[in-house]
């Protein structure tokens, strides 16, 4: 494995030089005012990236999984019912977590490759006259299948049913890379992590709570201490933490938000879309198909690529690592062996992306697939040449 | 606040140059074999530092507080009783966590400044014929009071009573700095964090489970997912994680263990004792007293220093930060305002320590205490000159 | 300009992560023994990389140009004659330096693209019965033209003529990347820099002197102080410097030598050859020609690529920088505008190289050259697939 | 030797965190516009720190010694006469360099510990009716003796004599730490290095040329290429270098200038004076004397401290390194064994300085000198408490 080549896993992503340096801090006293100068603007920056005016932002020394647990344990009580679709590995795991925490999950089985079934959500919510469903889980971007769902439609399903359930959105692999609208979509709890669109090492669960979600914390009885948002909120009033914070990562988060907001969120999203379109052009040139069923659900952060029947897609990932020192993602769960994944989020240029596409080509050819060398590269080159970036980022 | 002066808080500690660099890693694929080359020796290293032959070591992207939650939720069930002494802020918080998770806590109130009351534990355990107590909590080193307790005595209390309760030990501010004997003391769950004796940034909960503790996980019904040790154990079999690991910190942990073991644990402990004795010599020269009641409980990682009646000890900490750019620790809880704390653990030389002592002197004099400038420094100099280090560490 | 993409200039090269960290040192006392632990193995490492048993190695805080000046001023006197061929910009500059230092230069004009004219050297040396020629200059690898010359042939020319002139070799862009044999070729002064094969930032002139060259220093009267090798040698006896050394770069050099020697010099050279062959396959696929006249002089560290008549090759370089954030090298001197250069030395993988080739393709197509997108990439992919690396380097 | 303790050598100095990071750059193309964004403001910043409106600033990948050679070789011709005082090791070495370059040096022997003898310069210059003296050498701060001289007086000596000689000033250990007035003092060539007041690693010679010095370059015939200011000036017009620049160090220099100018030069000088006064208070408390003869020549960057007759002062330095891992400076040349030196320049807080003073005390006591432990620390504490810094620097 080489440390020189870019990684093409769907997170953790390639870390920009400036963020490497921001995270690599000497020890400071996390009870000194200097810490507040890091924490407070980092929370403000996250709020802006969520497109929220006043969500409560909590940042735990944890990961996205811890963010999910934060959402559940702070707003729900044992025996509560939640509504969730299973359309990929990450939605599956979230459902599993709910069950392990004693929640009942109304599961809407959905084909892996399809988006969240907002219409079926709508039906179920309308039928739930007693409002026994306390929360709706929505995975904005299924990292396992490269599928982006329509959160606005989920919100409409709730609104059309006049249903008061809380809306949880897993935005781990979408936030800071694809458009996310906390306020407009009526999200109640949004969950992100440091290691995807924020371009940092793993180690932070980043969570936004709406006023409604905060209200729910008062009656929720699932046990929690480490992930308790009230303890966190009380400490934040003093620019502090209830335990030792991950200062360097928070410093990185502050700087990452600054970079993203300076670039402009629209530019960030357009940049991701452009890189993704080049990858998709290559996939088409190879004659392969995405796991994502239809263009409206194509993810701009990760592409899961179906390989021909009888071929073990995981071999591509193993071969790329062993032979070329390049990391791609394997298929997970139901699509294990059927797909391999190219992550194309975070700090990634067109030039870097071409090297990933070229590597995938070599691997597929090495393993006997009928792929013309250079074909995917040429298709992506065509796309990138024809679609110059809106704004060239400053050196970072 | 200066980034140049050493910190004298009881963690996070000053990070050695080599560990700064070990943590500052480019992104690697945490599902590649390279990750196993980091994870596996890191777990082995921790086990050796715990002085255990075969404890199961789990490392979460979290903090010591998350380590406590790991201990409780994996081994206990709602309504279970635990025995705990409250002799400082951190034992207090652990008790609070137990209660919030639905456990009954038999609390042994103990003066802040005293060690764990092993004899009272013994009495209670002997009386608990029905073995309703499922776990005993023991804070090895109370960071709030600078008190180190006798864990072997707690084990004897259990053994003398023939009591099967699990023994939890909070070693967050002792492990890797003071002698800790997982196997010999019959510890069932030990909890540490990356940011103290391991000399790393905060961000890792480091936990050891005995075979008995692992057995208890099978019946424990407290809900857990993020902190589930079984999920972790299953992933470890594949040198992987159930979610995204904090790779850089793990790399740092691996290297930190290597440094500590190369130095030799006895040397590490002797080094901490030497530094601490110099600080204590200074305190005596100032005519001040430790919060720790008797020499047998003096901590080698942190000293809580009582200031004269009527003086707000917290002013020293504020003044040191504002006027000299140096971080000390404030008094917490019952001893807030009565003590200030000098952390003297981790990567700290005699020379650095003298600068902390000199700063404390200036602050106390500035604030009107009757302290002779240079007096504490001279006492510490005397001690350090008379007690050269056993082994001079290699440059790091 | 992006800091994310690899650079494809013929030095400074992409710096491996571990060397970045080795160079980034806190201040140490350069008069302490710790400095000797850096300096001495660094000098030994360089000697091994030069393939010399006992050359005197000198390392100045300077650059390759300073290394040239070191060679001249320590061994020659005003009015001395040197023999030199001009076959590129760097041999031209070295000749210019000689003239500015009052030396007479017998210049053998040679086509840019050809190697050193050993036969013409032989003729001249044979005719120089009086041995008025005191030194022969030989540029091992002309960075401007991508031409590697045959130093063994130059040595034979000297030997066949029985001529005692000192042999200077500029190995700035060859040493540590292509085979170099100080002892076998009878080199008297070899000059290298930190920023090419040694994969470090610029800032070190690295020079090897033979016993014969050291003897010549005793009579040489060109003025010198900063570059005086005797001052340096005297200081080296005490593991010190006559002035303040560039400690971090020396630490990096020590580690770089360790990396290269651990990989094995034959593997290092084979690695460079493999990467270069892929680039050359791409160039052939594009239907373009190298500046280097014949395959026997093809450089494995840099390719200078001729573009069609009437096309300004420099536009490719400008366009690559502005549009794709990628750095190539422009043509210099006689071949300015006629060639552009792809540097392929140092720490560069096949995957990174493919991104450079893909970028060059896009640039040439953007600028109207008749280049088929993907064609060069495919040719290089073919080559790299068919020629797996002898040894896969460990992560660094 | 510890990497944790601050260094107390008179350069290289302790490098601030932010400058460590500024120097640690990935490779960029030094022929791209990005390089100009580093080079040009760095040159402007140096000019401001020299207090010059339009000096030509040249920055070589070299050291202060290379800066001296730049001064001589660009402005003088073989056989030229220069006037110089020898009052310490660095003035001695500069004289030696002149002689080795074929210059005649009129040496004014001066006691080591005294400043430059401006009156004797005046006499000599007045007697030199034929203006055979082409340059006057002036060491602003003799690092060997801790003596700062009066450059304005040297200028007056020249002016009073109506003498046209060029004025060279070695400001290596004064510039950016003590007041320096290029324009006001009529300096013609000023020489500095990166590793002192600029707080960077060694590796840059920083030189300022007046218009008069630039004019002198046209007739100067000493050979030069690497250090040729015309080559450099021509390249600077294109924001480039005549060879490969040390980009990371230049980036650090740019940022260092920014830090110093943001702090304000008067604040920088006052900060150095304050730290130095504390050290001098400690020395007085020890009952020791400075090498510097009178307070008007006390250096604010380094103190050379005389130890009692019969005691080898170098033992303190060796002992400090071996026993406490702290670096002081030895006595050089005429005062070898008679003095040891504490460097107190660059990025150094009062708190760090106290640790150096405490270490010196321990060493002297260990070696049998009659020094009261804590006495020097107390005196410095008194001074620092009574003289708070004008402005507390921001965290860096």
Automatic annotation (TrEMBL), chains A, B, C, D:
One of its GO terms (biological process) is glycine biosynthetic process, by transamination of glyoxylate. Keywords: Aminotransferase, Pyridoxal phosphate, Transferase. Substrate binds at residue 341. The modification N6-(pyridoxal phosphate)lysine is found at residue 196. It holds the Pfam family Aminotran_5. Residues 30-328 form the Aminotransferase class V domain. GO terms for molecular function: alanine-glyoxylate transaminase activity; L-serine-glyoxylate transaminase activity; L-serine-pyruvate transaminase activity. Its cofactor is pyridoxal 5'-phosphate. It is an enzyme of class 2 (transferase). It catalyses: glyoxylate + L-serine = 3-hydroxypyruvate + glycine. The keyword Transferase applies. Belongs to the class-V pyridoxal-phosphate-dependent aminotransferase family. This is Serine--glyoxylate aminotransferase. It comes from Oceaniradius stylonematis.
